[in-house]
Amino acid sequence: MLSHHAGSRQALSKDQFEFAFEAALNVAGISAQLVKSRTNRGHDITIRDIPFSLKTEAAANIKDESVHVSKWMELGRGEWKLPLLRDLFLEHMQSYDRIFTFRRLKDINTKIRYELVEIPKVLLLEAANCELVVCINSKQSPQPGYGYVRDTDGQLKYSLYFDGGTERKLQIKHLRKNFFKVHATWIFGSMST
Questions:
Q1: DSSP-derived secondary structure letter, 143
Q2: How do beta strands 98-108 and 50-57 pair?
């Protein structure tokens, strides 16, 4: 991160993060290997024989208190029905056991901030019972929709957003910070700021 930001204000890309993460783990004596195919529909890296999914977040409007993954997975060109799409998501998660998200947070003054968080898989599996709502007023085709996952008080834990746009992808929105674990934080200055 330090060497990257010595000459750039841009966040580390997903590829840069994945390669650096794999190298750092191996240097630390923790066996890690990225999958061979960069287009693998399942896990991204195996760490100590455990399959992990790796996500990144670096949007300009990022919020410290919640996670938004703008592309969890592609939904393909198949039938566009929310229960089927939700089931594709649940099936997709069978190919990994743990989920890490590397986040570039907003700078504070001249300090660059990153964090590595873990999203509990069991939390995302709660989507099996989500409230599915089609956005009937949308002009997108196919019409997008949401899957709302709530706590026992009815408060939103997170939502699945089935984006019917050109990419037809699934997003995770508004995942509250109290539901995930922060494994590491980095705060440092940059010569390029």
A1: P
A2: parallel
Per the CB < 8 A criterion, the answer to whether 132 and 146 are in contact is yes
Question: Is the backbone peptide bond immediately before 142 cis, with ω within 30 degrees of 0?
Answer: yes
Structure tokens, 182: 């922060």
Domain spans of the chain? 2-189
User: Alpha-carbon distance 86 to 160, whole Å?
Assistant: 8
Cα 88 to Cα 153: distance, rounded to the nearest angstrom? 28
The Cα–Cα gap between 97 and 87 comes to 17
Cα separation, 130 vs 1, in Å, equals: 38
Per-residue pLDDT reduced to its tens digit, 81-116: 999 999 999 999 999 999 999 999 998 888 999 999
pLDDT band at 193 (very low <50, low <70, confident <90, very high): very low
